[in-house]
Write a structure and sequence with these properties.
Blueprint lengths: L2 H27 L1 E4 L3 E3 L5 E7 L6 E8 L9 E5 L2 E5 L17 E7 L7 E9 L4 E9 L3 H4 L3 E8 L8 E7 L15 E4 L2 E4 L4 E5 L2 E8 L7 E7 L5 E6 L9 E8 L2 H4 L6 H10 L4 E4 L9 H7 L6 E4 L1 E5 L2 E6 L24 H10 L4 E4 L11 H4 L19 E5 L9 H13 L4 E4 L14 E5 L10 H9 L3 E5 L2 E6 L8 E3 L11 E10 L5 E8 L2 E7 L8 E10 L5 E10 L12 E6 L2 E4 L9 H12 L8 H9 L1 H4 L2 H15 L1
Parallel strand pairs: 10-17, 18-19, 19-20, 23-24, 24-25, 29-36
Antiparallel strand pairs: 1-9, 2-9, 3-8, 4-7, 4-9, 5-6, 5-8, 10-14, 11-13, 11-15, 12-13, 15-16, 18-26, 21-22, 22-23, 26-27, 27-35, 28-30, 30-33, 31-32, 31-34, 34-35, 34-36
Protein name: PHP domain protein
């Protein structure tokens, strides 16, 4: 072997040794603090001491966390030598994600220069957040962007016409899990792991290398844009997601009447600024501020965030007691809350008498009062259970009069066995004679939970947010000119001219020779990612018609169903109920296993007295007509009445005749 070749080999060997030595030296600079798993919950926190050198440049602290439940006002802070590096945030599990994954997420925090010191250092995770498990604590001697190989992703959301539009962007990794976003760069957004609400004008954030999918949504009136991406080192990416309006709700405005913030309610995790962006990003047009025993004013935050053009805000209050919760609006933020004082109040008011509280709500200016989530926290412990509500007659053994204007029939906090439960209770109250409007609302406390997933569409003379008439909004609630929607929009009409909330003379809608039939038309609309399946018509709480809906996969639904119905024997309320598939779309997963819509009643005047009589009122009239003056019906007379065709013609009337007769016999 000649001397040159020997020299080359020696040189190569020397270079190889140098590279290996350099790699080892770099690896030695990484510090494994703790590989063990540690649970943190309640007062149980984490602390560990370790030896290190001073960091003259930015380092990176890494850990793996399993934290699934969203914060409700308290967080875990990650601290190094007393310096807060950041806080732990939940990666809420997604329906359809890979169940084989153990639920842990690798999270990185930047360690600013000179936070580490020579010798002993202390790592601590402190605070009061949701239960979590942490493991694999490690320090790397590189800046965060280098340690995680982060690359910048820029995203815009536009309409088909190329205009920016507020939206929710949801980012999931190849396992279907929400992905942590690093270095989000615009102030007008709301960000959580895998979630970014935007005004659509352009956002940028960093992600580690891997396969991801971006979703853009804007509530149930809009389509969804889906964009798979592959993030690679040294390759920044830019994407424009295009969504279009797929559900026409002309003549109605979308309202969420139950919305919270962290500063206003004292729990949850959405700031006022974040809440403005989430409301706009879900396509809500009327937003009622309903913090617990606190009257919030969204106006200055709308101005700061530039969201005035997207929704109309009304100040209200969730009057919160151990005896039930009520939404009341409008209310003046400069004045005391109903049942409390101006400023901060306890989460639960001491005053629990509904009559006094509702009177105080009205005195302080509330034109609309809604009973919230009547089945929370459970059916027995909610107000209906506590007052021993009868699901058949609507009577109550205990409790005050139901003198509110409506109650939340579709609401995530309602703990009911199925989607018919709340609907049936509401119709029972209508049969008893109460005029209560069915309401849909979310009770959203967080950025993660979409505002308006359950909502109420209110009849409006305008679709322009700047021209909304507040008095018209209040009347829509109190007069039942509204439709409940959770993914599906529905509108019921009679004779093509009578709408929800109307009193309709039966003689104007009967269309056949014998005048014993009438036609109801039901418009059902949904975006391409929702599939309505069936529509039902109820008369005085009894299902009298059913039709399947021919919805198509990945196509918007816009159908008008026609029902030929028998004219009822007595005055009646007519309601439509629509059910569809549940949604597993990341960012808009439904709280139950179905989507739904409920129309408020159209009232049918059958006897021609120009007013509506509920089944119980009709029952009283029939008993009075059958009874001689100042006498009680004998058992034989009662049987004759119950067997009469007039009473038997309507099952709700028959039920209330029996109930009233039982009361007179007791």
């Amino acid at each position: 072997m000649d001397i040159c070749r020997i020299g080359a080999l020696i040189l190569l060997a020397a270079c190889g040794v140098t590279n290996i030595t350099g790699t080892l030296e770099a690896a030695e600079k990484s510090i494994v603090i703790d590989r063990e798993s540690h649970e943190i919950k309640g007062k149980l926190t984490y602390q560990k001491t370790f030896s290190a050198r001073n960091n003259p440049t930015e380092f990176t602290f890494l850990l793996e966390q399993d934290l699934k439940k969203q914060s409700s006002g308290g967080y875990w802070s990650v601290n190094l030598n007393g310096k807060t590096l950041g806080r732990l945030e939940a990666h809420t599990p997604q329906v359809g994600s890979n169940k084989k994954n153990d639920g842990f997420h690798r999270i990185g925090f930047a360690v600013p220069p000179n936070v580490l010191k020579e010798g002993e250092n202390t790592l601590a995770v402190t605070g009061r957040g949701q239960p979590a498990v942490l493991r694999n604590f490690e320090l790397q001697p590189y800046p965060l962007k280098q340690a995680l190989k982060l690359q910048t992703i820029s995203v815009k959301v536009n309409t088909e016409e190329g205009q920016p539009v507020p939206a929710r962007i949801t980012i999931v990794n190849h396992l279907g899990q929400l992905a942590k976003l690093y270095n989000v760069r615009r102030p007008t957004n709301a960000v959580r792991p895998g979630i970014l609400y935007t005004l659509g004008t352009g956002e940028s954030f960093d992600l580690p290398p891997g396969k991801y999918t971006l979703y853009a949504t804007r509530g149930m009136e809009w389509g969804v844009a889906k964009q798979p991406i592959v993030v690679e080192s040294l390759k920044p990416e830019s994407h424009t997601l295009v969504i279009s309006r797929e559900v026409d709700t002309t003549g109605f405005v979308a309202c969420d009447s139950h919305i919270h913030t962290l500063p206003g309610s004292g729990h949850g995790n959405a700031t006022y600024a974040e809440r403005m962006i989430t409301i706009a990003g879900e396509g809500i047009e009327v937003a009622i501020a309903t913090d617990h025993n606190h009257i919030s004013d969204y106006t200055p935050y709308q101005k700061q965030s530039g969201t005035n053009a997207h929704f109309h805000a009304i100040s209200g209050d969730e009057v919160t007691t151990h005896n039930g919760h009520f939404t009341a609006f409008p209310l003046d933020p400069s004045k005391a809350v109903p049942g409390g004082v101006k400023g901060r109040n306890p989460l639960f008011l001491k005053k629990e008498d509904w009559s006094e509280l509702i009177a105080d709500m009205r005195n302080k200016g509330a034109e609309v009062v809604i009973l919230n989530h009547p089945y929370w926290p459970t059916i027995p412990k909610g107000p209906f259970g506590r007052f021993r509500f009868s699901r058949s007659t609507g009577s109550r053994i205990d409790g005050p009069a139901f003198n509110f204007d409506g109650f939340e029939v579709a609401q995530p906090a309602n703990e009911t066995p199925d989607f018919f439960y709340a609907l049936e209770d509401w119709m029972t109250l209508l049969n008893r004679g109460l005029r209560l409007t069915a309401v849909g609302a979310t009770d959203s406390h967080t950025v993660n939970d979409p505002v308006g997933q359950a909502r109420t569409y209110l009849k409006s003379h305008t679709d322009d947010v700047s021209q909304i008439d507040r008095k018209e909004i209040y009347r829509a609630f109190t007069e039942g000119r509204a439709s409940v929607a959770a993914g599906i929009f529905a509108n019921l009409t009679l004779a093509k001219q009578y709408n929800m909330g109307d009193l309709v003379p039966a003689t104007t809608v009967t269309e056949h020779r014998d005048n014993q039939k009438f036609t109801a038309s039901l418009r059902v609309a949904a975006p391409s990612w929702v599939r309505p399946r069936e529509a039902m018509i109820y008369v005085n709480g009894k299902q009298v018609a059913h039709k399947n809906i021919d919805s198509k996969m990945n196509q918007p639904t816009n159908q008008t169903l026609t029902f030929l119905l028998d004219l009822p024997a007595h005055d009646a309320h007519i309601i439509a109920f629509v059910l569809g598939d549940g949604i597993t779309l990341p960012g808009w997963t439904t709280y139950g296993k179905a989507t739904q819509a409920i129309t408020n009643p159209i009232y049918l005047d059958v006897n021609g007295d120009k007013k509506y009589s509920a089944p119980r009122d009709t029952a009283k009239r029939l008993i009075t007509k059958f009874t001689s003056q100042d006498t009680k019906l004998t058992p034989a007379q009662q049987k004759t009445l119950l067997d009469s065709e007039t009473v038997k013609a309507d099952s709700a009337v028959l039920l209330h005749v029996k109930d009233l007769l039982k009361q007179t016999s007791d």
